[in-house]
Amino acid sequence: MAYPPAAQSPLARQPSVKVILASADVQRVVDRIAHQILEKTQGAANTVLLGIPTRGAPLARRLAARISTFEDVAVPVGVLDITLYRDDLRRHATRAVGPTQLPTGGIDGRRVILVDDVLFSGRTVRAALDALNDVGRPASVQLAVLVDRGHRELPIRADYVGKNIPTSLAESVKVTLAETDGADEVKLYGGTTTS
Amino acid sequence: MIRHLLSGADLDAATATQILDTAAEMATVAGREVKKLPALRGRTVVNLFYEDSTRTRISFEAAAKRLSADVINFSAKGSSVAKGESLKDTALTLQAMGADAVVVRHPASGAAHRLADWVDGSVVNAGDGTHEHPTQALLDAYTMRARLGRLAGLSVAVVGDVLHSRVARSNVLLLSTLGAKVTLVGPPTLIPRDISPALAPGTAVSYDLDAVLPTSDVVMMLRVQRERMNDSYFPSAREYARRYGLDGPRMRRLPEHAIVMHPGPMNRGMEITPEVADSPRSTIVEQVANGVSVRMAVLYLLLGGNNR
């Protein structure tokens, strides 16, 4: 009897998918970040949340909603599109430009907290810092992310991290949110496994 | 994404809408303290102008500079063209200098198409003879959408010297793609006879301005192009103004919401009276401001990515 080699078996090629955060976990993590923001900023006074599209924008809105539930402060929320500030524009086909919406009152002299779903190479945050520089002069800038998966290529770190996920470069992290994808979930796709 | 922008017919509805949406984002830059985006850093845009132009050249220059591109302005006057250099040789020179995009205006219809065969970079037609001027059509469409909220179903009257107007030609092509209904109005001698129903579906012709006005959402007045007229197309300027000029009483016959457009430069008193040109319905100054945003969008979409 001859069996095909294991490497060619269809089973061996199936990528492994692991749910890191389920819907309830995502909500708990968002609640914790909201509490941490309140703690670290002494009540989130003079603070603006800016979401980085796509999934940073709904995350920023959720954080603001949770903060207002916990402490009854209204934190202005905005969206900061970073497309035109990316360092890889020329490596891809032209990217569509999204809207940038700054809260009324702007960001000058305020504490800006950038919000994104996954922190990976740090290049998106670098682009966001450049974009911020062109729309105003905040008093300080902080970073909140739902997931930090490591592998930084720039000297950037987050001030608020929902979940640290140690990953290999072959793996990929996918965040889905109810607002953009229909359901809250964080999944780790493991590339190919040989088991 | 398209590589060149040569004609209003190069754009399908999705691409044209993408340009208008991108332009809306670009417009927010004009309101900022730092009116600059880094998207085209290190790219070179050559403005190759064989014809006199104020607003188009300045508009393209401002657009390219706001996107951080390097801009080289070339006008035929005072260059080797005055010594008899051909368009092709000039194009090859620009190519050798590493132009990523060439914005060309030329008195010969089709010059931009020829240029697109000779250079590796993107070519943007900024007006070729009496043929086309697609970025003007885009900024007109942008202005209509900004003022009236939509393009589909709008009734647009394009009035005057349609025959010699590249603005009209590009507008007919683009607006019919985007679902507006265009009516060309002018003396029979200044309306082309070869309007293709395939290229511009729904385009109508009328010789009576007063009949068209009450049902128009947009009236686009065209400049009477004396410099392109080798013939007498109408008896006198006064007669033209009386039949096809837009004055106060005619403007009041328009629906309440209707706007008046003009691509400029205007012949005040000929096709449009100062009362109309300076009225709140006139979008003439807005069109200039929108021109920069639309050209930023075009340059970004042509040059921003790796589209080769």
TrEMBL record, chain A:
- Name the CDD domains for this protein: PRTases_typeI
Cite the Phosphoribosyltransferase domain residue spans from the record.
Answer: 20-166
Give the similarity note: Belongs to the purine/pyrimidine phosphoribosyltransferase family. PyrR subfamily.
Catalytic reactions of this protein = UMP + diphosphate = 5-phospho-alpha-D-ribose 1-diphosphate + uracil
Q: Which gene does this sequence derive from?
A: pyrR
List keywords of the entry alphabetically.
Glycosyltransferase, Transcription, Transcription regulation, Transferase
The species this protein was found in: Micromonospora deserti
Write down what this protein is called: Bifunctional protein PyrR
A Gene Ontology annotation in the biological process aspect, one of them, is: regulation of DNA-templated transcription
The EC code for this enzyme is 2.4.2.9
Q: Where is this motif: PRPP-binding?
A: 112-124
Q: Which InterPro entries match?
A: PRTase-like (IPR029057), PRTase_dom (IPR000836), PyrR (IPR023050), PyrR_bifunctional (IPR050137)
Task: Say which domain of life the source belongs to.
Answer: Bacteria
Could you give a GO molecular-function term held by this entry? uracil phosphoribosyltransferase activity
Keyword match Metal-binding: no
**What the protein does?**
Regulates the transcription of the pyrimidine nucleotide (pyr) operon in response to exogenous pyrimidines.
NCBIfam families xrefs: PRK05205.1-3, PRK05205.1-5
UniProtKB/TrEMBL annotation, chain B:
Q: Name one GO cellular component term.
A: cytosol
Which Gene3D superfamilies does the record match to this protein? Aspartate/ornithine carbamoyltransferase (3.40.50.1370)
Query: SUPFAM superfamilies of this UniProt entry?
Result: Aspartate/ornithine carbamoyltransferase
Transmembrane listed as a keyword: no
Reaction(s) catalysed by this chain's protein: carbamoyl phosphate + L-aspartate = N-carbamoyl-L-aspartate + phosphate + H(+)
Molecular-function GO term, any one: aspartate carbamoyltransferase activity
Keywords assigned: Pyrimidine biosynthesis, Transferase
What residues bind L-aspartate, as annotated? K83, R166, R223
Specify the domain of life of the species encoding this protein. Answer: Bacteria
Q: What is its EC number?
A: 2.1.3.2
Q: Which PROSITE patterns match?
A: CARBAMOYLTRANSFERASE
Q: Where does carbamoyl phosphate bind?
A: R55, T56, R105, H133, Q136, G264, P265
Per the record's keyword annotation, is tRNA-binding included, yes or no?
no
- Pfam families attached here? OTCace, OTCace_N
Specify the Aspartate/ornithine carbamoyltransferase Asp/Orn-binding domain's residue ranges: 153-302
Q: Start and end of every Aspartate/ornithine carbamoyltransferase carbamoyl-P binding domain?
A: 3-145
Could you tell me the Gene Ontology terms of the biological process aspect for this record? 'de novo' pyrimidine nucleobase biosynthetic process; 'de novo' UMP biosynthetic process; amino acid metabolic process
Q: Which InterPro entries match?
A: Asp/Orn_carbamoyltranf_P-bd (IPR006132), Asp/Orn_carbamoylTrfase (IPR006130), Asp/Orn_carbamoylTrfase_sf (IPR036901), Asp_carbamoyltransf (IPR002082), Asp_carbamoyltransf_Asp/Orn-bd (IPR006131)
In what pathway does it function?
Answer: Pyrimidine metabolism; UMP biosynthesis via de novo pathway; (S)-dihydroorotate from bicarbonate: step 2/3
Q: Provide the family line.
A: Belongs to the aspartate/ornithine carbamoyltransferase superfamily. ATCase family.
Q: What does this protein do?
A: Catalyzes the condensation of carbamoyl phosphate and aspartate to form carbamoyl aspartate and inorganic phosphate, the committed step in the de novo pyrimidine nucleotide biosynthesis pathway.
Description of how the protein assembles with itself and partners: Heterododecamer (2C3:3R2) of six catalytic PyrB chains organized as two trimers (C3), and six regulatory PyrI chains organized as three dimers (R2).
**Protein name per Swiss-Prot or TrEMBL:** Aspartate carbamoyltransferase
